[in-house]
Amino acid sequence: MTRVRDTQRSRVYGAEIPGQQIGRGTVPEVQAWVDQITGTSWWRARCPVSKIEVRNGQGGSSARAVYSTIKLPLWARTDRVVLHEVAHVLITHTCNGVAPHGREFTGAYLALFKRFIGGERYETQRAVFRERRVKVGAAPKPIRSGARPRGECGQCGKPVVLATAWRLRAVFPTGPIAGKISPPFCTRAHLQAWVQDHTVRY
Ligand SMILES: [Zn+2]
Ligand SMILES: [Zn+2]
After folding, report:
1. Ligand 1 center to 120 CA (angstroms)
2. Rounded distance from Cα 148 to ligand 1 centre (Å)
3. 8 CA to middle of ligand 2, Å?
4. What's the pLDDT score for residue 196?
């Protein structure tokens, strides 16, 4: 796997305007603000991640986004740094093979800034990006409603929408395989056939 070069990284860092601390800068206060963002219909239309976990970035000198968790040392608990990390989560889950601080990222960051900070500070951030020649892509567009995450039926391989696929848990609420994790299935019959094939007797 080739890594995409993150050529714009230091340019983005150098062009970000100062942030404002969120409340007193506690993890629960930051979590509450992030929950507000991910609870909006704007967010839900654009990113499949429904919850971003905020953690204390203790010992780490930098703020980080790891999959759908963001880790923030005390200095980083400002609206601007949080939106930077939230933009990483959005891009990680919606764009494959793009640079971490490329135009998709800055497009998402500015869109988040506009929506969740807005006003003069947004105008300033946009202007500084322009002055410093930061490349900015389009704002993230809503994911088409038909484009829900898909998997493959564990029995026949047909594509299935994960949210509505048949699962073991639903069909066998009690008994020895209750609550077991399984692949998704397109029909109940395929789930039952799979269970037959995968029954292990100890
Ligand atoms: Zn970053
Ligand atoms: Zn099937």
Report:
1. 23
2. 27
3. 45
4. 79
- How distant, in Å, are the alpha carbons of 27, 169, 200 from that of 187? 43, 14, 22
Considering the entire predicted model, what is its pTM? 0.71
6 residue type, one letter = D
Tokens of 10: 């230091």
Gyration radius from the chain CA atoms: 21
**Ligand 2 centroid to 159 CA: how many Å?**
8
Count Cα neighbours of 78 within 13 Å in the Cβ-side half-sphere.
11
Confidence of residue 29 (pLDDT cuts 50, 70, 90): very high
Tens of pLDDT, residue by residue over 46-74, are 888 889 999 998 766 778 877 788 999 99
Name the closest ligand to CA 109. 1
CA distance 97 to 201: 44
